[in-house]
Amino acid sequence: EAGVTQSPTHLIKTRGQQVTLRCSPISGHTSVYWYQQALGLGLQFLLWYDEGEERNRGNFPPRFSGRQFPNYSSELNVNALELEDSALYLCASSPGGPQAFFGQGTRLTVV
Amino acid sequence: KNEVEQSPQNLTAQEGEFITINCSYSVGISALHWLQQHPGGGIVSLFMLSSGKKKHGRLIATINIQEKHSSLHITASHPRDSAVYICAVKYFRDYGGSQGNLIFGKGTKLSVKP
């Protein structure tokens, strides 16, 4: 069974640009979580999607947004990139309840 | 207060040593996760606990719900165990906007020398 897959694995963007990161959950999982891990910092919760709806949002500005598709895959969009958005972005999926399965992450570098 | 605290922050051990990493939290949880993150960044879920003890190979995780404390033990440590170990909890209730998501500790960086 395939695990949580994220794409791309790495990318470099210029300040002010926009970026879209993608996450495919484990088959049958309806919840997708997005986390940011900036250099030297711990994991911070970004967004939670379940059954296509945004259920909770972390303390991030509105230029961080996302959506979940009918097949439960998810996108994270970041507009007007800033240097401090450089981070590892991790996606986790869950069938519900406390379980969480993590992807390998997308490393975003903003220059 | 809804922090998750880990100790130690950094840990250096010699190959073969027994290692313990601790995690404490402040309010009721539905589950606690121990995660491993290698330098490449990807995270592997080691254990999910809601009570008692779990063992997988050389790794043992315990949780004491009354004391709000969990430990991760590594027996006969090996250089390949070098990684950051992260404790994360899911709270029963929505504390400080934590509904549904995991709250993470800052991690323990383990380095095992040959």
Question: What would your notes on this structure say?
Answer:
The complex is a heterodimer of chains A (111) and B (114). Chain A has no helices and eleven strands. With 111 residues, chain A is mostly beta strands. In chain A, the strands form two sheets. In chain A, strands 2, 4, 5, 6, 9, 10 and 11 form a seven-stranded mixed beta sheet that branches. A four-stranded antiparallel beta sheet of chain A has the order 1-3-8-7, with no helix packed on it. Chain B starts with a strand and ends with a strand. Chain B is mostly beta strands and 114 residues long. Chain B has no helices and eleven strands. The radius of gyration of chain B is 14 Å and the shape is globular. In chain B, strands 2, 4, 5, 9, 10 and 11 form a six-stranded mixed beta sheet that branches. A five-stranded antiparallel beta sheet of chain B has the order 1-3-8-7-6, with no helix packed on it. Chain B has strands at residues 4-7, 10-14, 19-25, 29-37, 43-49, 52-56, 59-64, 69-74, 83-91, 103-104, 108-113. In chain B, a hairpin with a 4-residue loop joins strand 7 and strand 8 (69-74).
